[in-house]
Amino acid sequence: MNNVAIFGYGTVGKGVKDLISLNPQFNLVSIFDMPSKKDELGSLLVTKIDEIINNNKIDTVIECLGGDTLAHEVIIKSLSNHKNVITSNKETISLHLKEYLDLANKNNVSIQFEASVGGGIPIIYPLSIQSDFDSINEIIGILNGTTNFILTKMQKEHMPINNAILLAQKLGFAEKDPTSDLEGLDMVRKANILASIVTKKEINNDDIPHFGISKLNDNILKQINDKNLILKMLTRIEFKKDHISILIIPTCLRGDNLLSKIDYETNAISVFGKYQDPLMFVGKGAGKYPTASAILQDLIRVSKNKEYKYCNLKEKAIVKNEFTGTYLCFDDKNKLHELTNPDKKDLSKYKFVCLVD
Amino acid sequence: MNNVAIFGYGTVGKGVKDLISLNPQFNLVSIFDMPSKKDELGSLLVTKIDEIINNNKIDTVIECLGGDTLAHEVIIKSLSNHKNVITSNKETISLHLKEYLDLANKNNVSIQFEASVGGGIPIIYPLSIQSDFDSINEIIGILNGTTNFILTKMQKEHMPINNAILLAQKLGFAEKDPTSDLEGLDMVRKANILASIVTKKEINNDDIPHFGISKLNDNILKQINDKNLILKMLTRIEFKKDHISILIIPTCLRGDNLLSKIDYETNAISVFGKYQDPLMFVGKGAGKYPTASAILQDLIRVSKNKEYKYCNLKEKAIVKNEFTGTYLCFDDKNKLHELTNPDKKDLSKYKFVCLVD
Q1: Mean pLDDT of chain B
Q2: From the CA atom positions of chain B, what is the Rg in Å?
Q3: Residue A86 phi/psi, 5° resolution?
Q4: What number is the average pLDDT over the span B186-191?
Q5: Looking at the complex, does the CB of residue A122 fall below 8 Å from at least one CB of chain B?
Q6: Number of domains in chain A
Q7: In Å, what is the CA distance from A293 to each residue of A20, A115, A280, B270?
Q8: A86 shares its domain with A130
Q9: Which of A23, A283, A304 lies closest to B279 in CB terms?
Q10: What's the confidence (pLDDT) of residue A285?
């Protein structure tokens, strides 16, 4: 039950190896990576995925490859070969969750992905338990450390956006090409995963509208801050009777909103249930050990209860957004236009758009 | 596996009944209470505990009696009769956790108590998972909604302490005799439970020093607030190499500390691990549905994995507090004396004592 293999020996894979070595109940059998890692990994290294897939002693694989090509192949083959899979890969989970859950259930194993949303914060598991007995009305969160870091640097330290992006890259928070963070694509995937867990329905990333902060500048931010509002990049999911509203959008918060106090690379998720509202979880959303910690949470859970399953995704969800409320829209000359209950089309005319909470 | 009985049909018991009725996978077989509840409960009511204990169809009992006399008897008899036990009763858990865990393990059943700390906030389970792979260094929390409500009313709305206590009683947050909340005894029990989960050692409530807010007055509070500090009632647990430091004490926080923003009856718990720091959980710490929600979390967990166990408590913990740092001590004339690294004896001379964070 406790023989483990890791696919991918990058930052997260190394963190997982470190934490496993502190837990004698787990036996790390193999790590898949490039032959160049031989000196570092010695006899742990395997360079063909089938050496792990076909090793019947290995019960659980931890996928730390990233992306959706090799990761997808590894996850499918591992589940098919009766191995539990643990992953932090939000891209592949948001694209193929139904396929993975079906395959895991068919083969009586488990697929776990606590680390895919909110880094080390336990959210997927508690949310899956809560949605078993409670009606979840809404989830609002700061789910991207990179954009929160940039917005905090801009608002608390008056750093220009380009410098903040460069600093985030230097500190390892932002990718070389930061578009997926800045334009909200990373949050689309995370929102998809959270909403799937709650509704037990399949969600298409393409159905989720997202507004980014690439075009934000100091002039716009000053106009927002002058209204005593704090700008945060929020992921908003509302669960309605027959559909889900999901919106990834920069949002103006008042200072008495606890989310306005969540700064730098910290993430926070608020869950509003019918019987237990609100719950808020705060922690580091990314990084070597926060991510590895979430993977260890899954590993311990799976080792105690091999058949722990979330659900199957039975149908496709209807995702639509009503764009209700007040939106601050800035044109190419940074001039503010206030729109109430706009059409999505109206919003697309502006350079930068944010919602007023 | 899913036949359930409830002991005690007060506020929490009613909340649990409501939530179970929304979950068709659970079958509520019996509720133990006084004969006077017959009209309300009909054939669900039983008035002798053995009718539940000896009913072999019942797998799991939920103890909502409170106190430590009948609750202790019910828990011991239920575990001995191979039933899982779920309870929100921090008094009996803090007094008898070792006995309960030993008995549960011996009989291959589970004792769960998520609701005993932080109401509906999932903390016991995530903490037990985290302490399996991480070194927990420190836990700091606002674990008592009553005192947080009173301190918020006093500081945000300038309400005198006696009015705030009366209002808390009127709203159902505070007991008729509020001493156990105001003097920190409630938090002693909660700290005991959290520290036991992390260290897997037995802890004596009497070893935990606690300072209360009964003697707080507007004059003292004004002197604290004039220093730009916010007073919060904190539970502080530090895990050292060979001992645990636990201290329940009013604490002066700066405005940039997120705990200073946790207001009214809300609870918050920050966990500082070596590999995952800091994690913060925020939510309603008490009340009908928050407490019932935590009980349902346990019920779902136990129904999915009957043998889920926390640990055994193997030895007695060494609990001692160094009283390091700066303490603001107010004498009978509300005059402030600042003490650094005091003896506990020194602190006992003053009317009101708080720590500066």
Answers
A1: 94
A2: 21
A3: -125, 135
A4: 97
A5: yes
A6: 2
A7: 10, 8, 19, 16
A8: no
A9: A283
A10: 85
Q: Last residue of a domain, which of A112, A145, A178?
A: A112
A37 is catalytic: no
pLDDT at A270 over 80: yes
Q: Are residues A339 and A238 in the same domain?
A: yes
Interface touch B280/A276, C-beta < 8 Å: no
Whether residue A252 sits in one domain with residue A224: yes
The confidence score (pLDDT) of residue A174 equals 82
Q: Read off the pTM.
A: 0.95
Find out whether A353 and A233 touch, Cβ atoms under 8 Å: no
CB contact under 8 A, A122 and B126: yes
Angle at A88 between CA A251 and CA A112, to 5 degrees: 110
Q: Does A297 touch chain B (CB under 8 A)?
A: yes
- Catalytic position from the list B83, B190, B232, B284: B190
**How many percent of chain A have pLDDT more than 90?**
88
Burial string for B40-79 (b: 16+ CB within 10 Å, else e) reads ebeebbbeebeebbebeebbbbbbbbbebebbbebbbbbb
Give B26 to chain A, closest Cα distance, Å.
11
Within this chain, do residues A166 and A280 fall inside the same structural domain, yes or no?
yes
Which chain B residues are closer than 8 Å to A132 by Cβ? 23, 296, 300
Tell me which residue in A273, A277, A301 faces B129 most closely, judged by beta carbons.
A301
Q: What is the pLDDT of residue B287?
A: 86
B274 and B176 belong to one structural domain: yes
Domain for residue B54, yes or no? yes
Residues B136 and B174 in one domain: yes
User: Could you list the residue range(s) of the whole structural domain that residue A208 is in?
Assistant: 124-285+316-356
Same domain, B140 and B64: no
Interface residue A137 vs chain B (CB under 8 A): no
Looking at A79, A112, A145, the residue that finishes a domain is A112
Residues A52 and A77 occupy one common structural domain: yes
Q: Are strands B27-32 and B45-46 parallel, antiparallel or unpaired?
A: parallel
Q: Name the pLDDT band for B173 (thresholds 50, 70, 90).
A: confident
Of the candidates B134, B282, B296, the beta carbon closest to that of A133 is on B296
Chain B within 8 Å of A325 (Cβ-Cβ)? no
Q: For the CA atoms of A346, A348, A349, A350, what is the dihedral angle to 10 degrees?
A: 110
**Which residue is catalytic, options A153, A190, A232, A284?**
A190
Question: Would you say residue B304 lies in a domain?
Answer: no
Residue B303 domain flag:
no
